[in-house]
Amino acid sequence: MTALAEPPVMHEAPPSGTIWRLAEDRSSFAGPTDDRAGGLPDHDLLEVALGPHHPSTHGVFRMDVVLDGEEVVRLKPVFGYLHRNHEKIAEKNSYLAAIPYTDRLDYICSMTNNWAYVMTVEKLTGFQPPERAEYIRVIVGELTRLFNHACLVGFLLQDMGALGTPLMYAFREREKILDLFESLSGARMMCNYMRFGGVRCDLPDGWIEEAKQVVAEFPRFLDEFEALLTGNEILLVRSQGIGVLSKELAVNAGVTGPMLRASGVGYDLRKVDKYSIYPRFNFRIPLGQHGDVFDRYMIRLLEMRESLSILKQALDTIPAGPIVDPKAKQRGLRPKAGEAYGRIEAPKGELGFYVVSDGSPNPYRFRIRPPSLINLTVLEDMCLGHTIADVVIILGSVDIVLGEVDR
Amino acid sequence: MLGSGIIKGMVETARNFFGSYVSRERLTTVQYPEQQLAPHENARTIPLLVYDGDMEHLRCTACGICEMECPAQCIYIVKDTVKKSDYLGRMQFQPRVFDIDISVCMACGICAEVCPFDSIMMDQVFALSTQNRFSGLLLHKEDLAKANGYFHAIHPSDAGDIDARRDEDKRKAEAKAKAAVAAKAAAAIKSSEASAKQVEVAA
Amino acid sequence: MNNLDQIFVYAKYWLLSQLPGGVQSLVSIVLDIIAIIAVFGTCFALTTILERKGLGRIQNRYGPNRVGPCGLLQPMADAIKMLTKEDIVPFAADKVVHYLAPLVLTVPIWLAFSVIPFGREMSAIDLDAGVLFFFAVGGASELAVFMAGWSSRNKYSLVGAMRAIAQMISYEVPLVLATIPVIMLSGSLNLNKIVEAQSGYAFGVAQWNVFTPWGFAGFFLFLIAATAESNRSPFDLPEGESEIIAGFLTEYSGFKYALFFLGEYLGLFAVTALSVTLFLGGWHAPLQVLEFLPSWFCFFVKFAAIIAVFIWVRGTVPRLRFDQLLNFSWRFLVPLTLVNLLVAVVWHFTSLGAGLDQSLRWLISAAMIVPAYVYFGRALSPNRPTRIYQYAE
């Protein structure tokens, strides 16, 4: 596949079933704005608000669904319940003090959030993380991807009604990685680990060996998972052909991450941007063909195996040395006026930070491009025509964390 | 054939069912109140203030850097009006009020990171629930102050490094002070000698 | 040995003999009712705790183990919690129907136990139309579920109730069709007679219906339909908590909720007891050498084994979607039960003087049922090619 070398082809006009419906007036559902062929059926429809307190909305999130029988004819995602003013707080705080807040964006993957932010500030200031710090970042980033994907698959199956069994297996493995994170950074989830020009503290003694063992044991879990689920007929009929997201729509709507790759677009920032030291490692990008829920599930499983391969290489070749750029300054950082956009391939997609500095100790503008939110915009297009049970698993396959969606 | 995947899955769950009776690796649950895991050395929860000797000798100098850097703005410091001598014998202020609202604190550890006096450090206590969510979660100087020995117990290697550095500083300071005293004495002798000479000359 | 087998029967007769003749028949009925309620009430309590523990082990955790020794008093704690909870009735609810629904669900299900022989001489009523009676009272649960869903005035409840009705009606058909071969071949609707027809041993192994080709297929078809009929995973759509919160139970709390729970488990027990009776030889021991075991013991061991399978399945599979659920019933289970009916007929007539070899009979039966299984299975889920995933370098 050579498509990866350059960004995917952008299409001229959005395909039919436009994605702009979010901006519509949402005062009435059955309004005349519906442009779909035939419009809404004229018999009674059932309006159901799925959420904000609903077991399967993965947090506080609402989907106003119009049902014809059990079939979805319209769906409006309503979010903002978890808005915590992150961007404005970061504009008020110093550059350093914004790092712990990024932990709480996508609270499952704090390491990658830290990484994207410090990378942006490094672009702004020109700090150069030393070799060892880059290795540590790649290792913790890929560990994060591992357990994010494992949990996502668990949650997805939970939404399908598998009574928590896959989720518990995923959590069992996630614990091991969280233990690694705790011994490294002091906290299991809110790591607050990366610093401008490096990382906060060096690896504790024996950490590499523990990590190697976790990485060595992980494939067994993946095999178990696949034996339990991948061949399961119920999973196949539930997920194949459900929530199809076409290549064109995915590209036009700015969908990134495993969801985009499940639709068959080979776009992975680790390959496209070649940031950090990713070009040194051998890994492949799995691509789906159908863009349905099953593909999204499989892409995650396959990506976990690729992450394991990166981890193996990185853990074997990590050099000794300093962990922070000696020029780097953490407290009282005043980057010279300018702007920077840093992005990484977070487990959920392209996570970008846009920071504008005016030379003062706090950012003039601080903006996040959250993959969850942007991937969520295509929810209605994927859900129309499916039943309420499918809506739940389609939402589950998008992989959202409401902390990141609402910020 | 229909059903083969389900049967494969059922074999897998049966393996886990029986495995959980024999393999500790599968049944990872820790029965919390009875069994407790030792925290990792790096583990952090809320901040603490280290003192040497007694409570009157907090390392904190009420400089206010942590107050300024705290992302959640949960630290409140009021300087004392009198100065006390620190471990190097310098006269320093100490905090009269040092409050941390741990209902706001997010245990990020930035305060400990930026403290230039090795005073504020991260604790490992975690059973922090109280009956009163306002005053119960507002910790004062007395609640936060912990002996250096306690800090040694929870973060041995960090505490060792810090103590070694402080001892070194102290040794240097003492040496400097001694040198200063010696220089002074030498100067005094010199001057007395000189005056003696003058006396001689005068005589 | 015989004493142990009949201990409960003797105890009952001894008790009755102490009473004046006039009230004996009435007391006899009351004793039967008390026995059934006590035994299956205990079963309910035990099943809730063992199910949670079993699921816990499947999921690599302990399950409840805090209340009492090994957590065995957990059901008591649950009961106290349920009883002391506030009973919330929605403002807009149809209060009378809302109140009646859990009762309408629970009461008829107790009736279903009256015809089941739990041991030698141990059935409350020796009813000639036992199977018919069983399905008739079992049918009342649909009404209760719809009453609950409709009276709650909640969209989730309504969707859940609609699902429940469609599901229960669809699965009643294969459930009954799967029992028909048993009735045909034992020539009776009386459950005691059906058990009797499965007595006797060939080469030391019991001659249960499940050891015949039609019985084997019928047993599994029956179990699948029973899973759906009792709203168990993977057919737990009416309550599918990840989709419609708790379905028709959404607006129930406290004791009413507990009653629904009880009714659901009793339904499961009833249909499990029926499957034991119809296919697993009722209270007969599996091997001739085990015949010394009390009959009720044999019955409850089989009963527990089937419940364990239900729990095991629940811990493994995801839930089906609603249209797939109905398709599964109408396009797979119903045709297969019909084929199975034919198999039973062939089996019956090949034994009458045709002098066919036993293995040939099995072969013929298998030749009928296996292709049907494969064919209907294919039709249900059209052959999906194994997906190959490409990699970009």
Walkthrough of the structure:
The complex is a heterotrimer of chains A (407), B (203) and C (393). Helices cover 43% and strands 12% of the residues of chain A. By secondary structure, chain A is an alpha+beta fold. In chain A, the strands form 3 sheets. A 3-stranded antiparallel sheet of chain A has the order 1-2-3. A 3-stranded antiparallel sheet of chain A has the order 7-8-9. Chain A is globular. Chain B is of the alpha+beta class and 203 residues long. Chain B has a domain at 47-163: Alpha-Beta Plaits. The termini of chain B are far apart. With 393 residues, chain C is mainly alpha-helical. Chain C has one domain (7-379). Chains in contact: A-B, A-C, B-C. Chains A and C meet through strand 1, helix 4, helix 5, helix 7 and strand 6 of A and helix 8, helix 11, helix 13, helix 14 and strand 3 of C.
- Give the SSE order of chain C as H and E letters: HHHHHHHHHEEHHHHHHE
Counting H and I runs of at least 4 residues, what is the number of helices of chain C?
15
From the 3D structure, determine the CATH topology of the domain at 47-163 in chain B.
Answer: Alpha-Beta Plaits
Instruction: Give a count of the beta strands of chain B, DSSP E runs of length 2 or more.
Output: 6
Can you count the beta strands of chain C? 3
